[in-house]
Design brief:
CATH topology of one domain: Lysozyme
Shape: flat
CATH class of one domain: Mainly Alpha
Radius of gyration: 56 Å
Low-confidence stretches: 1-9, 37-72, 403-409, 469-491, 581-594, 643-652, 665-681
Number of helices: 28
């Protein structure tokens, strides 16, 4: 207990000491800060000072806090979207955010401050714009939904037309984009939308909508992200791809700072338009005072080159406004079409057919003809230069003796002359004959340069013919010529000159008739010569055929005579030579190779040729193969077809062998001299050794022995080389 009392006294003593020292420390600290503040104010007169401490009673600086908007420097650029976000009540922001996030769609619907700024613009600040769009919604959205469903695209892409043109089919931007979907000229050309002085199909609702669906499908095939697709629709696919390559980013909101302002606002505007139209009733945008438009059933009228005035058709249909039908045909630039225009279809309401009841198509088209000629494009005026007289019209030149009128009267006319190329004629000779240049002949007949003319080809030649004198003089017109052009009176032609010109014209006509008659006679002569040549060729061919038939018959008679004489001599030696032939034929039959072979797995022609001592070419020829590929189970012939066919004809072979033996026995005096006599008496042919050939194969192929081949070719062994030429007797 004593220790506790002692500890309490110590704590109280320390508290008392702190209470005495603390006021002195506070006084010193405040005095030091005041002195520093005086020195600082002496250097910088305007500096905010901190308020005095609450415990300081010696010096208190009662200074107000500076205004934050004045003291803090404001940024040079103000983010309007951020400012609008701050002005919007939090409850409204949360409500719009919940509604946007509940959209069940594939198109962009991300909510942020940019989207909220445009939602406020369309629902509060610029309500009239959205109400005008709502009036045209029921007229165009069914058409958009039909084509979007046909191309398997999200249906909510119909709001893209609102962003582009506010559903005005004739809208045109400052850069030239036109129509509901705001196509530029090159893009419209790529999508096959035709444009001319009378029709611009970018303003055709159906054709432009189908083209937009094709373009959106193409962009989605490139980016596979609808936010990037919308950005590319506005900025161009190439620009978006270049930005993605330069920055390495693949998301719209990551690319947001690197895009132009119009493209940055494009996707938020699309989301805000979609929200504003979906929740138009919640924001009070739909009222009974709006003039809603609805699609009507229409009829069509086909035009096939007739001139047509749409205003006349409006009157025939009973509409007070003569331009009422331009609402159904917004692609017509002038509410009319000229004669000779391409086939086109005009649309008008089906309800107006009551006023056209009983009127046929021809009568209606006649009524719709323009009352006056349609305006034509103005002719291009030549530039006016100082010191140079302007060009005059053709009528003025025709009414005067100007240089062009004189050139027209004195210019030669040309006559078309056909010519058929004959053997030996060249381009130079024809040019010299008709007094024209070779270049003109090539140009008139489309002849290639450097190629000779083929006989029988038809050419066209234009021969100049002097013009005849005019039948009657033309009186000069002086009143219609301006003063700037000098007018010379036309000189009167004397009767003598007129008679001379008439005689010259008649002479020219006679010359032309004579040349035409010569050309006709030449053509008839060529036809006769061609017929004679054909007749001679037929007779010559018949004579050749007859001569060949007679030669064959004579050869057949000689062969029969020789065969009869040979048979008489062979019968005598048959008995003596038959035993020898039989003994030679038996070993030959035993040594005959296998006729057929069945291909097994792993076999190929090179291997089979090597194993059976034949060539690949021989196997292909004997088996009539299209290629060197064989299949398992295929049957191949491994020797010549002549030997295979000769197998069942053993008696014939024996007869030939007997005949050969008899002939050799009759000529040769001794067996040792038989090969030498064979070489001299029998004709030989040259055989080139092929790959895989051996002396044995060659002997079997040509029906001779190996010994005869060696002696005939002076060979010391049975080896032969590839490409070596051998003499083979034709036995």
């Amino acid at each position: 207990m004593k220790q506790g009392i002692k500890r309490t006294k110590t704590i109280r003593g320390s508290h008392l000491w702190l209470m005495l020292v603390l006021p002195w420390l506070l006084f010193k600290t405040t005095d030091t800060m005041a002195q520093r503040g005086r020195k600082h104010r002496a250097v910088e007169p305007v500096t905010p000072t901190m308020p005095a401490l609450l415990g300081d009673t010696v010096q208190v600086h009662l200074e107000l806090q500076p205004d934050s908007l004045v003291a803090v420097p404001m940024p040079t650029t103000i983010d309007s979207a951020r400012l609008e976000w701050l002005r919007t009540p939090p409850t409204l922001r949360d409500l719009v955010c919940d509604r946007v996030s509940c959209f069940e769609t594939d198109v962009p619907h991300q909510f942020n401050n940019s989207v909220m700024a445009f939602v406020t613009l369309f629902t509060a600040r610029n309500r009239s714009y959205m109400q005008r769009v709502l009036e045209r919604e029921n007229f165009y959205f069914p058409l958009f939904e039909k084509y979007l469903a046909q191309y398997n695209l999200p249906t909510d892409l119909k709001y893209l037309a609102v962003v582009e043109s506010a559903l005005i089919p004739t809208a045109k931007s400052r850069v030239g984009a036109t129509g509901l979907w705001q196509f530029m000229g090159p893009t419209a050309g790529d999508l096959r939308l035709q444009r001319d002085d009378w029709v611009d199909e970018r303003m055709h609702p159906e054709k432009a909508t189908e083209a937009a669906c094709k373009h959106l499908r193409y962009l989605y095939g490139i980016f596979h992200d609808w936010e990037l697709v919308l950005a590319a629709y506005n900025w161009g696919a190439g620009s978006v791809q270049r930005t993605m390559r330069r920055t390495g980013k693949t998301n719209f909101w990551d690319l947001y700072p690197h895009m132009p302002a119009e493209t940055r606002n494009y996707v938020p505007t699309f989301t805000a338009i979609m929200y504003s139209m979906k929740y138009a009733e919640a924001h009070g945008l739909r009222t009974e005072n709006l003039n809603y438009q609805y699609a009507e059933p229409v009829d069509t009228l086909g035009l096939r080159g007739q001139a047509f005035d749409l205003r006349r058709l409006s009157q025939a249909c009973g509409f007070e406004d003569s331009l009422y039908l331009t609402r159904f045909n917004p692609e017509l630039r002038r509410a009319a079409l000229p004669s000779g225009y391409r086939p086109y279809i005009i649309r008008y309401p089906a309800a107006a057919a009551v006023n056209l009841k009983g009127v046929d198509r021809a009568t209606l088209l006649t009524y719709c003809q323009p009352l006056t000629e349609l305006p034509q494009p103005l002719p291009v005026l030549p530039p006016r230069l100082e010191g140079v007289e302007p060009w005059v019209s053709r009528q003025m030149l025709a009414a005067t003796e100007g240089p062009r009128a004189q050139a027209e009267t004195t210019a030669p006319r040309f006559r078309k002359v056909p010519h058929k190329v004959r053997r030996g004629e060249t381009l130079a000779s024809l040019a010299e004959r008709f007094e024209v240049s070779q270049a003109q002949l090539r140009r008139w007949n489309e002849l290639p340069k450097g190629r000779p003319l083929k006989p029988g080809r038809e050419l066209v030649v234009f021969v100049p013919v002097p013009a005849a004198a005019p039948s009657r003089p033309v009186a000069p017109v002086v009143a219609a010529v301006p003063e700037a052009i000098a007018v010379a009176p036309r000189a009167m032609v004397s009767p003598e000159v007129a008679a001379a010109r008439q005689a010259q014209a008649e002479a020219n006509a006679r010359e032309v008739a004579r040349m035409q008659e010569l050309a006709r006679q030449e053509k008839a002569q060529e036809v006769r010569l061609m017929a004679i040549r054909q007749r001679q060729a037929i007779q010559q061919a018949a004579a050749d055929v007859k001569a060949r038939a007679e030669a064959k018959a004579e050869a057949r008679r000689l062969a029969q005579t020789q065969a009869a004489e040979t048979k008489k001599g062979d019968d005598k030696a048959l008995a003596a030579v038959a035993p020898e032939v039989a003994s030679e034929a038996a070993p030959a039959e035993e040594a005959a190779p296998m006729v057929a072979y069945t291909v097994r797995r792993g076999d190929y022609l090179n291997r089979l040729a090597r194993e059976h001592n034949v060539t690949v070419a021989q196997l292909v020829e004997w088996n009539q193969l299209q290629s060197e590929t064989v299949t398992p189970g295929q049957r191949l012939v491994l020797r010549a077809p002549a030997e295979r066919e000769a197998a069942p004809e053993a008696p014939a072979q024996q007869l030939k062998a007997i005949t050969k033996a008899v002939a050799k026995a009759a000529v040769a005096p001794a067996p040792a001299a038989r090969p030498a006599l064979d070489k001299r008496l029998e004709p030989s042919k040259v055989h080139m050794v092929q790959r895989g050939d051996t002396l044995f194969n060659i002997s079997r192929r040509f029906g001779v022995s190996v010994k005869v081949l060696r002696e005939l070719n002076n060979l010391t062994s049975d080896e032969v080389k590839l490409g070596q030429k051998l003499l083979v007797p034709q036995s």
